Amino acid sequence: MKAELIELIARVIQVLQINIRWMTWNLFLAFIPLVLSVWLFRRIKRSRSSVWWFGFAVFFAFLPNAPYLLTDVIHLIDDIRTIQSVWMITLVLIPVYLIVILAGFEAYVISLINMGYYLHRIGKTQWILGMELITHALSAIGIYWGRFLRFNSWDFVTQPDAVITQGIEEILGKQPLVILAISFVILTVLHWLMKRVTLGFIRQGCTNIANNSSKASLKPQTSDE
Q: So what's the pLDDT on residue 180?
């Protein structure tokens, strides 16, 4: 029994060591658009220079990497077959995958919240929903290109011809269109849910800060005589 447990733990550690490489890399790619969204949409400066537009293009090129982590659930299925222990799968494997996938998708949600904040600030609040839906559609295409055609974000620069020709040709088939439609619905629903959860936490935090500030200002001050 002890030997079997040691062997099982060693197998779990081996699986996690293999996964930590692509998990770290995919999370790094997912947080690039999040950082860019802060720089693009949260700055006080309103002018949109050529550098801003370049950053905006890079932002959209890397943005699908954040929800792309949802598709990494296929690795979880392979790992479950490898480990074959209900307890290790439940207590170790699934929580690790949930943290990584949720972190990536939360980066996507916050990036869109930042974009919506920017549109509201420049007086284009009515564009927010449309831009979110367009972003979901483009991200669904990006996820398909990444998962099935193995394109990367930087392929827009290194091999733009292949991305445009092969990428567009591939998504016009019946099966790809079904996959894109399902991906679009999943992104839309999950974003809608997590956006409200995220904004709820933000508002709760702001309320707590405001309440603490009010209590501090109403607290009687004593003076030394």
A: 95
